[in-house]
Amino acid sequence: MPGAPHTPRVYFTTLAVVPFVPGATLVTNILVVDDSATIRRMVRAALQPVAEAQFVEAETGLEAIERLAFAPVGLIVLDLNMPDMHGLEVLRFVRAHATYRGIPVLVLTTRGDDASRGAALAAGATAYLTKPFAPAALAAEARRLLERGGVGAGR
Amino acid sequence: MPDAEREAGRFSDSFLDDYFAECDEHLRAMRAALLKLETALRDGRLDPGALEQIFRGCHSIKGLSGMVELTEAETLAHELESYLRALRDAELGLVPAGVDTLVDGVMELERVIVARRDRLPVPPSAALIARVRALTAGGASAPAGARTAAAVTSGGQRWQATYVPTPALLERGVNVNTVRERLQELGTIVSAMPDVRAGGGLAFTFVVETAAPPALAEWERDGITWMRLGEAERAPAAAEAAPAAAATAAHFVRVDLARLDDLMRIIGDLVIDRARLAESLARVEPHVPANEWQAVHEHRSSLDRHVRDLRHGVMRVRLIPVGDVFDRMVFVVRDLAREYGKQVRLELHGKATEIDKFLIERMMEPVLHLVRNAIAHGLEGPEARQRAGKPREGTITLRASTVGDTALIDVEDDGQGVDAAAVTARARAAGVPVPDGPLDAGALLDLICAPGLSTRETPDRGSGRGVGMAAVRAAVQEVGGTLSLETDPRRGTRFTLELPVTLAITDAIIATVGDRTFAVPQNSVSEVIEVEPAAVRQLENNEIIPYRQGTLPLVRLSRVFGVAAAPRPRLHVFVTGRGAGAVGVAVDRIVGQKEIVVRTFGDRFIKVHGVAGATELGDGRVVLILDVGALVRSGEARGVR
Question: How confident is the model over B280-300, as a mean pLDDT?
Fold first, then answer.
C-alpha cells in the first residue's frame, strides 16, 4: 500500500562528536531498547543520575540497529523478548560487527526465564539484570559499564 | 534495605498512569486476538498470529506489573504466559476449554489491574491460576486439540525488499519500523535481517510474500528497492521469521484527559472572550469609518474561524472509536449467554464511530446493562424461539452512528419485546402511578425506568432491572442525552441512547420568550419552523400543530417557565426529539445562533426541571440552557400524543 502517511517523528540524527579526553566526563548516548514505552521511561528515569547521559530509544530490535548506525552509543540497555527481532539477535549483530563490537550491552529482561541468562552471556552481554529492577542497581551497573567502556572501548 | 525499598515504591508510583494506559492497550489487543483464536478454533485451526499476540501481551503485562509491584497481575500473567508458550511451541494442543480459560484469564487480569487503579481490594485469582496450571501440566496426557502448523504460506510471490536508512529519510519520519509496517500491509513478512554492507553502511533485508506486486517507484523514494525472488531463492525461510506483530502504536501519543480538559476550559474562555469582543466591536462600529471597519470585520471573521477550528481540533483529540467498548461486549455476551442458557449472536455496527472519551466511559455501564437485560429478559430460550418460528440463535445488535453533533447508540435484540402487561402489573404492585389506556413506548419506558421496579419476581445476578434501568436513564440524562425505546413482541426491543458528541462547548440557538433569553443546544434541534397562531389546534388540554403531513405536540416555553409571552404574528417553533418522540417547542423569537460554553450547575439544590445549565453571552448576560430532553418528556407526561 504505497503512500502511507508518515507521521514525522523526532529522531536523534546529530552526530555528537565526543573528543577523547582521558579522565573527563563523557557525554554518552545510552540506547534504551524495549517494546514497552513505560519500561523505556522507567529506565531513563533510573539512569538520569548517571552523569551527562543522553538517551536514544528504540521499540524494536530492528529500530535499535538502525539507531546504532546514526548515533554513537556508549551503552545499550537491551530487552530480550521483543517482537520482530529478539534481543539476542540484536546482541549477536552488535558483536558480529567491528563498528559496534566494543559497546557494552546491559541485558534487562523479565525474570522467570532462567535459560536466557546463559544465552545472553554466551551471545556477548556485558551485564544481565532482570525486571523488576531496582533503579539504583540499574544506575550503578550502567555507571560501571560506562566507565569501563570509556577508558578502553573494546574487548 | 528498607530505604531502597521505599525509594523503589516512590519510583514506580510515578509511572502508574503509564502502566495503566499500556496495560489497557495490551488488554485491548489481547481481547481482539482471543476472538480470532476462538473463531479459528471453531474451524479446527490454531491462529499462530493471534496466539503470539496474546503471548506478547501477557509477557509485557507480567514485566510491567513486576515494576509497579502488582504481584497478583504479575503471577497471573506469568501462568498464562507459560500456558501460551506451551501452545506456541506446540507442546500442547488448544482445546475449547483452553480458550475459555484464556478468556477468563484475560478478563481476570483486567479486573486485577482495574482494582489496583481504583484502589479497591484486588480480587483473588487462585482458582483461575489453578485452572491455568492444570491446563499447562496436562500436556502429555492431552494430545488432542489444534496445534501450530509448521509453516503458513499465503501462496503469493516472494519479493526481497532492501531498505537503506539515511539521516534524510529519518528526518522525514521514514524508519525501519514504518517500513516494516508498510510491508506488513502489503503482505506477509517472512524474514527481516539487518546487514552491514561493504562500505560500512547499514541495510535491512525483508523477504515479503505478497499477491500484489509492489509499485516500485513509490517505495524507492523512501529508500526501498525491490527484487523478485525466483523459485531457487525461496527456500531459506529464516527460522526467526517475524510473526505479524501487533499494530504498533508508534504514531500515537497518550494524553492525560485532565490536560485536554484544561485545553477545553481555555478554549471555553476564548469563546467567551470572542463573544465579548464581538459585543464591544458592535458598539464601536458606528464610530469607525467604513473603510477601516472592513479590515476589523475581516480580522474578526478570521478569528472566529480559527477559534472554531481550534475547538473542533481539540474535540477531535478527545474522540475515540466506540469499537473498543463494543469489543468488550463480545465477552460479556459470551458469558451471559452461557449463564442464561441462551444462544446469542452479537452483531456490531459502526465500530469506527468516534465519541468523546469521557462520554464513552460514562456510557459503558449503561450499555452493558442494556445488553445484560437483552440477554436475560429480551431474548427467549432456544426452544421458545423455535416455537415462535425464529432461529434458535438470538441476535443482539449494537450499532453506533453520528448524526451531526449527536451520537446514537442502539442496543437491539430480536426477542420477545417488553411485556407491557407485566410491567404495568409490577408498577401497580410497587405503587408506581400508571397512566390509563394503552401505553406507548415512551410511557412504557417511564415505567421501566421508575425507581424500584423490576419485571422479575426474583432479582438475578445478571440484571436487576429495577435499579438498573433507572440508573441507565439517569446516566444518559446526566450527560445531556436521551434514552428511547421501541419494542414489539414479534420483532424485539431496541433501546436508543442519543448523546451529544461533546459536552463542554456547543453551538446553540438563542431564543427569547417575553423578556427572557434561552439557549438551546443545536444538536437537539432538528428543524426550526414558523407557525401561524391560527394553525395551532386544541386537543383536550393540549395543543398540536400541523407538521409534515402529520401533527406535532406543541410545548409553549412561556407556559413551562411561567413567563408572559410577547404577542407575535407568528410563532417560532423548534422541533426536537426523534420519530414518535418529536415535540415542537414554541418560543417568541429565535434571535440567532451562537457558540456557547456550557456551565452545568454543580449544586444539586438548584437543579431545575428543563434547565441543563447556564452560559454567558458576550454582553455579560447569563442565560439558561434548555434541557430539551426534559421538555420533551414533560410533553409526553401530559399525554399529548
Answer: 88
| Interface predicted TM-score of the whole assembly (ipTM), two decimals | 0.75
B230 in the same domain as B348:
no
Q: Are A85 and A62 in contact (CB under 8 A)?
A: yes
Neighbours of B404 (CB within 10 A): 12
Angle between helices B323-340 and B357-373 (to 10 degrees): 20
Domain boundary residue among B87, B109, B137? B137
The residue-averaged pLDDT of B537-553 equals 84
- Which residues of chain A make contact with B170, given a CB cutoff of 8 A? 11, 13, 66, 70
- B177 vs A42: CB contact, 8 Å cut-off? no
Give CA–CA dist A129/A108, Å, rounded: 5
pLDDT digits (tens, 9 = 90+) for B438-474: 788 888 888 888 877 654 444 444 444 345 788 888 8
Neighbour tally for B82: CB within 10 Å? 17
- Chain A from 90 to 149: CB within 8 A of any B CB: 93, 97, 99, 110-112, 131-136
Compute the distance between CA of residue B59 and CA of residue B126 in angstroms, rounded to an integer: 19
Judgement on whether residues B355 and B311 belong to the same structural domain of the protein: no
pLDDT of residue B232: 39
**A3 closest CB neighbour out of B19, B218, B245:** B218
pTM across the whole model: 0.57
Compute the distance between CA of residue B246 and CA of residue B103 in angstroms, rounded to an integer: 19
Distance CA(B199)–CA(B532), nearest Å, equals 87
Q: What is the CA radius of gyration of chain B?
A: 30
pLDDT value, residue B618? 67
Same domain, B354 and B313: no
Q: Cβ distance B408 to B353 under 8 Å?
A: no
DSSP state, residue B449: T
Which amino acid is residue B234, in one-letter code? R
Task: Please report which residue ranges of B519-604 form alpha helices under DSSP H.
Answer: 557-560
- Preferred mutation among B10, B67, B184 to probe A, highest tally of A CBs within 10 A: B67
